[in-house]
Amino acid sequence: MNEISLNGIVFKYTNFLYGYQERFFKIENGNIFYYLSKDSVREGCRKYRQLSNFAIEVDENDPRRFDIVFPDERWCLRFKNEDEMIVWKNALRAFLPIPVSPVPNRAHSIDMHKLAIMTRDMDAQYDFISDFLDKFLGSRAEPVDLTTIEQTIDRCRQLEQNLKQIRAMLRLQQVKESIMSEDEWHDADDGDIQLDKEMINEIQKDLKTAQVEESKKQEALESLKSSDPVSSPLYRKILALTADQVKYAKSGVDQGIWELFCEDGAMKMYKREMESEDGLMVDPLKAVHTVKGISAREYIDCFFKAEYKSEWDDTLVKVTVVEKMDENTMVLHQLHKKVWPAAQRESLFWTHFEDVSDQRDSDALDGFVVCNHNVEREDVPLTDPSCVRVGLTIAMLCQTIVNSSAKNKAKEELTRDDIQCRIYYVAQVHPGGWVPTAALRQVYKREYPKFLRTFTNFVMKKIEGKKLTF
């Protein structure tokens, strides 16, 4: 193994403020080194570790990332592409046969004795299924007992559910801030997972209960879909909150209440420091921005449409349209990329588009708003038990402003040179769980301006070469 040699550029996670930074890594003589850059190799490495007591944890949601877990620290690494990640992972795996430190004796650890008993029972189930399939395939001319087939199908289903149950149990035992053994970092192999008869009965009972509950949820959902969404209580709340957010977005940024924390050309961003009742940071944010050559409708459409979100929001792993209440209102479920060491976040919220030209500023041609607010639904569980769901209230209000030189032009005669888009953006997010307040404030001071710049550039590319629309 000491003959394995590899080097190249890898992105290593540094901290909350600077995220992943480019570093030069090298595997040589059974050790892994990293340097500030390739040019600084002569100056000496930043750090090195012997590859004798570690584990590899792969990120299921990011095919370009994995962590190297040592007994006393963790290196979070990201690669330029999946192929590079596989090369480095395979090189490191050559050093893995030596076990890491034993499983700590914690009150919430998995009962390893019980798992050992469960292994034998599941092995027996697997052998039974294999024997039956061999017999069935080798004797097609002989009659087959349908009861036996049904029993085999049931056993297969039990095995599948048992595997899911155990993997969920193992994931719940992971504590990212602590140092764990290799067994706790990885799901067990299929051959090492077992469930005793008592647990099998419990799972079967839970499955029946879940099926009944799922049936009730589907009936309720179908009833909701068949009813008129405009007359539903939720829709009335959506309209009321949207109206409040329009007034809130247009209200001033009085000194002493709002603090300017970023100014970049026409863009100004303000904040108010605030904590929730449970002590978590929920600072309200407000942005005022102007973009030339874009109509309010063009800008707001890109913000509202679900199919565009993954193109301009690089924090997203997945976006799902849960329900479309009407053409201008839908429920979205978003899974966000994990930022170690915090738990992975997700959001479930309704999003509503509305023409508010009757509430536009005196110098505006039109006005449109998109309002987002978190919602609870029994039919949309957490993506994973380790995830945390955030709360949010966000609104973007856009208005088309006609330049003074084109005030006398008819609407259909206006060109991109004649207009600009005035944007009001307000947001308040509840993190859903503990995050260091100071670090989170530093992050949003960097990320919110970045978001507005990135989104504006995305809209500019979308409308390039297209006819102006209102």
Describe the structure.
The protein has 470 residues and is an alpha+beta fold. The protein has three domains: 6-93, Roll (PH-domain like); 112-210; 229-463, START domain (Alpha-D-Glucose-1,6-Bisphosphate, Chain A, domain 4, 2-Layer Sandwich), CATH 3.30.530. The protein has helices spanning 82-93, 112-138, 146-172, 182-185, 197-226, 233-250, 296-304, 306-312, 437-463, and strands at residues 6-15, 19-28, 31-35, 47-50, 55-58, 65-69, 74-78, 259-264, 267-271, 285-292, 316-326, 329-336, 345-355, 364-374, 388-389, 391-402, 419-430. Strands 8, 9, 10, 11, 12, 13, 14, 15, 16 and 17 form a ten-stranded mixed β-sheet that branches. A hairpin with an 8-residue loop joins strand 13 (345-355) and strand 14 (364-374).
Oligomer: single chain
Instruction: Give the count of structural domains.
Output: 3
- Which word captures the global form? globular
Mean pLDDT figure? 80
CATH superfamily of the largest domain: START domain
Largest sheet: 10 strands, mixed
Low-confidence stretches: 98-108, 174-195
Helix content: 25-40%
CATH class of the largest domain: Alpha Beta
Report Rg. Answer: 28 Å
How is the CATH topology of the largest domain named?
A: Alpha-D-Glucose-1,6-Bisphosphate, Chain A, domain 4
Going by CATH, the architecture of the largest domain would be 2-Layer Sandwich
Strand tally is: 17
Estimate the strand proportion. 25-35%
What are the SSEs and their pairings?
Layout: E1 6-15, E2 19-28, E3 31-35, E4 47-50, E5 55-58, E6 65-69, E7 74-78, H1 82-93, H2 112-138, H3 146-172, H4 182-185, H5 197-226, H6 233-250, E8 259-264, E9 267-271, E10 285-292, H7 296-304, H8 306-312, E11 316-326, E12 329-336, E13 345-355, E14 364-374, E15 388-389, E16 391-402, E17 419-430, H9 437-463
Parallel strand pairs: 13-15
Antiparallel strand pairs: 1-2, 1-7, 2-3, 3-4, 5-6, 6-7, 8-9, 9-10, 10-17, 11-12, 12-13, 13-14, 14-16, 16-17
Helix pairs in contact: 2-3, 7-9
